[in-house]
Design goal:
41% helix, 141 residues, mainly alpha, globular
Length: 141
């Protein structure tokens, strides 16, 4: 009986380390300095309205239609929460898994090392983002 419970405990700890599974609900490993940004990000992931706006932003970008007034109004609604909306909205018009910035000054997609990140990773879980995508020093309170 003791051996069986030990095996279950070991299996449970192995499952806890499975990427993707715990990142949806267990935030114990999120550093204190990322907690506020993480909360905004995860809230946005759960919002049907914000996810819908993200989908429409991608469709708009793919179609090359810069004049969608309803989409513009909805983006402004999201931005009305203030600077924290930048955590997730900054990459709304970008395709996932594409590098939109580089550190080479002569290229058009140059990103200053101190600039906030641009990511097309929304709505990926916060803990699955690359460290660069989690660098939001001004989102603390």
């Amino acid at each position: 009986m003791e051996k069986e419970s030990r095996q279950r405990a070991e299996t449970g700890s192995q499952q806890a380390e499975t990427p993707g599974a715990n990142s949806e609900w267990n935030f114990d490993k999120v550093p204190d300095g990322e907690l506020v940004a993480c909360c905004y990000w995860e809230y946005a992931r759960e919002s049907a309205f914000i996810r819908s706006v993200r989908d429409r932003c991608l469709q708009n970008h793919r179609a090359g239609d810069p004049c969608d007034q309803r989409l513009h109004a909805d983006v402004q609604t999201i931005q009305s929460i203030g600077y924290p909306s930048e955590v997730f909205i900054r990459g709304f018009f970008f395709e996932p898994y594409v590098a939109y910035q580089c550190e080479h000054e002569k290229l058009p997609n140059y990103r200053h090392p101190d600039a906030p990140p641009i990511t097309g990773s929304f709505p990926k879980a916060w803990q699955e983002l690359p460290m660069m995508g989690r660098a939001w020093p001004l989102i603390r309170e």
